[in-house]
Amino acid sequence: MDGRPAPAPLLIACALGIERLALRRGGLGDTAVTVLRTGMGPEAAETAVTRALADPALRDAVVLATGFCAGLAPGMHPGDLVVAEETRDPRGTTRCDGTELLVKELVRAVPGHTVHTGLLIGSDHVVRGHERADLLATGAIAVDMESAATLHCAVRTGVRPVAAVRVVVDAPEHELVRIGTLRGGISAFRVLRSVLPAFVEWHRSLLLPRR
User: Fold this and answer.
1) How far apart, in Å, are the Cα atoms of 149 and each of 43, 104, 105, 116, 180?
2) What is the pTM of this model?
């Protein structure tokens, strides 16, 4: 024992059981990782994350929101990755930490997949049709229901690094009716299944002592 405090754990929040299933894998070494299924929607995410961070074991946790999202920009495809520079919903805007590092680790973990960076906007419902264009006009590149609420809650309850990484499951030219039933859903699931090592490396690098 060298007397140094244990590094802050990593809390990964996702909404759906299929997302949590994709994120289950071993081989994480000594990194303390908790994958939290919050349930769908911003209120469910806020409630679940608040409860999780009240646990003394997770009080100082680094928080990363992940799962599937809808792409807003033309040319996006299922399986593309979105790394948020910031998240936004009616609760406010939250800046993300270590975006460039996350992009680097994701490119390494999932070679050949496009990684987009920009504003990830929150919604309280599944976005379809003309709503995509309306949200794109705000400067957002993707939308989901939980990331903004998750990160807002995380920084409200303590000073900690936060981030959001989403996998595009549908896009303007590839609208998906139900996750898992079409090729786009399967592609997004496979990508999400491969990104956990990138999250762990991002977490480790953030916590390295600054020289």
Assistant:
1) 8, 25, 25, 21, 25
2) 0.89
